[in-house]
Structure formats: C-alpha cells, structure tokens
Amino acid sequence: MNRKPRNIPGFTVYVSLILMNKIIYCISGLGTDEKIFTNLQLEGCKLKHIPWLAPHKKETLEHYARRMAASIQERNAILMGVSFGGMIGIEIARQMPLQKLILVSSIKSAAEMPRWMKIAGKIKLNKLIRHRNYKFTERINNYRLGASTLQEKLMARAYRQSADRDYVNWSIDQILNWKNTWMPENILHIHGDKDKVFPVKKISNTRIIKGGTHFMVYNRATDISKLLKEELAR
Questions:
Q1: Residue 54: helix, strand or coil by DSSP?
Q2: Mean pLDDT in each 10-residue stretch from start to end of the chain (234 residues)?
Q3: Which residue range is the domain that position 190 belongs to?
C-alpha cells in the first residue's frame, strides 16, 4: 500500500540542507560551561564548546583570546559567544577570519558597556572588592541573570560555587577595562530586551528577543534557535 508523503514545509527542508554539517564553536559566559547551550535546537549543526582556560599571571585579553582560538580547527569558522564569551569572540575575530561571529547577551564595544561598569573599571573598584560567593547576594545575582525557575537558580548556584576565584577576578578585570572600538563586519548580535547585565538601551544593531534576559541562551533557546537557523541559512 502506497503511503502519502509527509507534508514538510519547503523552507524547513531548505534550512536543514543549508545547515547540514555546519560546526559552530561556542564560548559560554563567565564561569559557565557547555550546559548553557544544551537547549539550543540546531538540526544539522554540531556545537563545539571551547572550554575556559586558566589565565596566566598578568595575561592580556589579546593573548588569552589567542590561546582560546587554538581550539578552532576550521578556516572561516562560525563562532558564538555568550556574555564575556562574546567579548572573547570579538578578540578572536581580530586574529583570524571568521565566517560569522554570533554574540548572545553580550556587547560589541566599550560604548555598549553600562556606565556603572566603566566607572567601576576607572576607579578599580574590582581591585578593592574582590569576588566572593555570598549566599545573601544570590537573589540579586539571579535577578540580574534572569534565572527564575528552581532549575535555573540551582544551575546558577552550581556555577558560582564551582568557578575558580582567580579566573573570575581576572575576567571581571578584563570586562571592566575593555576598551574595544573595533567590530567585524560579519557579526550577528542577539540580545534580550530584559537583560539586566547589559541593558538593551546601550546596544545597537541587534536582533531583539522580547522578554529575553541575560540567561536567555538557556531559557529562551527555542526563540534563539529559530533566529539562528534563519540567519545561517541566508
């Protein structure tokens, strides 16, 4: 008995063929790991997470980015960075050609950094108040991240408890003192309009996720996946 063919929208087939076997290198946010990308649904793509490295003493961001870039094996690769990972992505793009640089919940230049961060960097506030994992600040940190469900809060807590203190302090110093003004042409910036870490009012030339927070690569992964598939199929 002949079966009727399944009715699959032509655009879905087209996108699947375009994305087939594409590798997307991923850099997670400060102190996080590959689990932050687990809800993304990019059929035909392979996500390769670049793990954070322990910074060398007095290492510059440029040199650190060069060490991170050593994990990228393809020419003209696709690179996706979340939050601080996006800033590292910008630094990597300075040093090697990329087919596409995708920023999620990040900033492209120092001009997009909130004013309080610039002031904190200028007065070296992070040198005076070093990073500590205080339980009484957990609620504030979760609010800023946009971690609202119990699962998200437990995930954020696990990241805070496991993060290496020297690495976190070095990373915060690099973020607060980032002076970048250069941007690559082949960039896709995705940002949430409810981001409390990098407020969207400072962000230019971005694709907006309505209701998206700083944690949206995890809890709004369906929306981000749809946008990525459309953009990468062009």
A1: coil
A2: 46 52 93 95 94 95 98 94 98 96 97 91 66 69 92 92 89 94 95 97 96 97 96 85
A3: 10-112+180-232
